[in-house]
Amino acid sequence: MRIGLMADTHDRLDAVEAAIDFFNRRGVGDILHAGDLVSPFVVPKFSKLKAKLHFVWGNNEGDREYIRVKFGEIGVVPLGDFAVLELGGRRIALVHGTHEHIVDSLVRSGIYDVVVRGHTHVAEMVKGKTLLVNPASATTPLVCTISQLQPEARM
């Protein structure tokens, strides 16, 4: 199972469009967005996404209610500040990662196979009992093969 990871899109329409094209060309089934979309005007770009979008709030969403309305128009429900997903037989925590001690606690808990986070704009992959992945920013989306917990392609 292939999943796409992205975070911190920060109204970068060009980067969002490029990431969507990147994911669509690779036949990704699910996209995990670790927050900081920022403005509602970015949401319609995701209507071209062929995969299912899983989105959590970041610390820079300006108008969460209107973002929620715009996502509703394309059939996406924001998952709140934190989400637990079961994909490809893996338990995945999705969080923006504003607070490092929370990210560290999620990783150390051993409850999750993968923790996907954003916030720092720094690409990170820390292997251990729980894999910690940060795809960085909108300009660096990542495709992973979830069964192997290995990165497959970066734009």
Question: Can you characterise this structure?
Answer:
With 155 residues, this protein is of the alpha/beta class. It has a single domain (2-154), classed as Metallo-dependent phosphatases (Purple Acid Phosphatase, chain A, domain 2, 4-Layer Sandwich), CATH 3.60.21. It contains 3 helices and 10 strands, in the order βαββαββαβββββ. It has helices spanning 13-25, 64-73, 100-109; strands at residues 2-6, 30-33, 52-55, 82-87, 90-95, 114-116, 124-126, 131-134, 142-145, 150-154. The protein has a 5-stranded mixed sheet, with no helix packed on it. Strand 5, helix 3 and strand 6 form a beta-alpha-beta unit. It is globular. The model has no long low-confidence stretch (mean pLDDT 91).
Describe the structure in brief.
This protein has 155 residues and is α/β, with parallel strands linked by helices.
Mean pLDDT: 91
How much helicity do the residues have? 10-25%
Q: How many distinct domains?
A: 1
Alpha-beta classification? alpha/beta
Oligomer: single chain
Reported CATH architecture: 4-Layer Sandwich
Tell me the strand percentage band.
Answer: 25-35%
- Runs with pLDDT <50, length 5+? none
Query: Major sheet, described briefly?
Result: 5 strands, mixed
Instruction: Write out the CATH superfamily name.
Output: Metallo-dependent phosphatases
Please give the CATH class. Alpha Beta
- Report, as a whole number of angstroms, the end-to-end distance: 18 Å
